[in-house]
Amino acid sequence: MICIQFSKRREADLFYNSVVKEQELWLLKDELDYYEVTLENENKSQSTFREIVQACLQVIRARKWLGWMEGVLRHTYYYEDRREIDRILEIGREFEGEPPSGLAMPPVYRKIQSFLENYVTLHSVINFDDMCADCLEDSHRLIAEYTGFIIDEYKQEEAYQLLLDSWRFRVQNRDTGVTLLHLYQNNGLTYFHDEGNPISESETLLYMKQYPDESIKDLPLHWCITPALVLAPDQLVIYTNKPDDPHLELIRNIFEEKATWKAQSEFPFKMS
C-alpha cells in the first residue's frame, strides 16, 4: 500500500485529482484528524513513482511555493511592507509562467523535484506536511537565491517607475516655450515644429542644455523618445496607424492627456 497523509483538504484534493487521472485505483479517505490518499495492493512501480512525485510537486507549487518565498522575503531579506511583498510575489508568479529571456534562474524546481524523488523512494507512508518541511530545509539556499533574482527584477521595476515619474513630471511641469510638436510615425519617429520643419539632433541638444534636469541629462540623442522628453511641448500630436507600437505606448504613458492621436493620413506636412 502507498499512503500520503494531508492536514488540509484542498491539498489532498489537488493531489488526488492529479494522480487519479492516471490510475483510478487511488482512494481519498476523510479520516478523523487528517486526509489520506492511498493506492491499495500496489508496489511502487516506476510509473506510480513518477505520478506521486509530479503530484507532490504540483501541490507544492500551487499551495506552498509563494508562502516559502514570502518567508524568505521576511526572514532572509527582511522585507516587511505588505505592498512590496505582494508585488515581489506577483513577479514570482509571472516568472513561473515565462521567465525573462536570457535570464538563467537558479534551478530551484529541479532541486525540489530531486528531493521529492529521494523522499518518495524511501517512504511508502508519507506525511505531506513533514515532507514539505524537510523539502524547504533542503532547498532553502536555492529558494533564497531564486527569490534574490525576483527582488532584482522588482528593484529594476521600481527604478524604472521612478524614472518614468520623473519624465512625466518634466513634460507636465517644465516650460520650455514649445507649444506644439507633431510626431509622425513611418519608418521610425520624426518630430516637427508646428511650422513643419523637422527637429534635428543639434536642436535637441541645444534644448537639453538650455532646460537641463537629471531625468534627461544622460538620454542618447538618437533615441526616438528623447526629443519629446527634452522639448517637453504643451501638446504632442501623434500621427500613426500603429498606436500599439511600444515606443508610442511609452509616450502615451508619459504625456497622458497632453498627447493627441491622429491617423497618418491627417499629417499636415509634406514628407521629403
From TrEMBL:
<dbReference type="InterPro" id="IPR014199">
    <property type="entry name" value="Spore_YtxC"/>
</dbReference>
<protein>
    <recommendedName>
        <fullName>Sporulation protein YtxC</fullName>
    </recommendedName>
</protein>
<dbReference type="Pfam" id="PF08812">
    <property type="entry name" value="YtxC"/>
</dbReference>
